[in-house]
Design a protein that fits this description.
The structure is a single chain. The chain is mainly alpha-helical. It has one domain: Fumarate Reductase Cytochrome B subunit (Up-down Bundle), CATH 1.20.950.20. It has five helices and two strands, in the order αααββαα. The chain has a two-stranded antiparallel ribbon. The protein is elongated, with a radius of gyration of 18 Å.
Length: 176
């Protein structure tokens, strides 16, 4: 496949790194809330926050890269409707991958707990306010559900191309 039909190695590495972080954050997020109060729960929450902020930073790098490097064109055989859906899904990923960590950070800011990035203290933008904490927590949960649905749609789209033998689409982001 010509190189212009594939994403760059850097874009592919960012995609898969971020995908792994999203999976790790889902696993941590849905499991840590069931833990009883205590040091173990605090450790998992701190890790979840640090990974979430890392994901947000990587998204910043990804947007910066994307603004300077056009993505490869879609294969000519791809129907315009599918190309439009793919663009919309990618746009929604960007929106949710900003809203998710920002809502988590704000929730944490109004929880009374400080946020650190792998031990490095970050600015505390809020105060202890249970209603605001709950509001941002609900946004965080709703974003995680929407993100999960979007990931599922993305994976189903990939599987559809794989099953149809559409190598041109499958190879665009394949890491090897």
């Amino acid at each position: 496949m010509p190189t212009e039909q594939r994403y760059s190695a850097f874009a592919i590495a960012l995609h898969w790194t971020m995908a792994l972080l999203v999976v790790a954050l889902f696993a941590l997020g849905w499991n840590m809330v069931e833990l009883p109060q205590g040091p173990q729960r605090s450790t998992w929450f701190a890790l979840h926050k640090s990974l979430g902020l890392t994901l947000l930073a990587l998204l910043g790098v990804r947007v910066w890269w994307r603004l300077r490097h056009a993505p490869p064109p879609f294969p000519d055989h791809l129907p315009r409707v599918q190309a439009g859906i793919a663009r919309l899904v990618h746009l929604m990923f960007y929106v949710l991958l900003v809203a998710q960590p920002v809502s988590g950070y704000l929730s944490s800011s109004f929880s009374g707990y400080r946020t650190a990035w792998f031990g490095l203290p970050l600015p505390h933008w809020g105060w202890r306010d249970a209603p605001l904490n709950e509001f941002f927590t609900e946004i965080h949960v709703l974003c995680s559900i929407a993100l999960g649905v979007l990931v599922a749609a993305h994976v189903l789209g990939f599987l559809s191309h794989l099953i149809q033998g559409d190598d041109a689409m499958v190879r665009r982001m394949r890491p090897w």
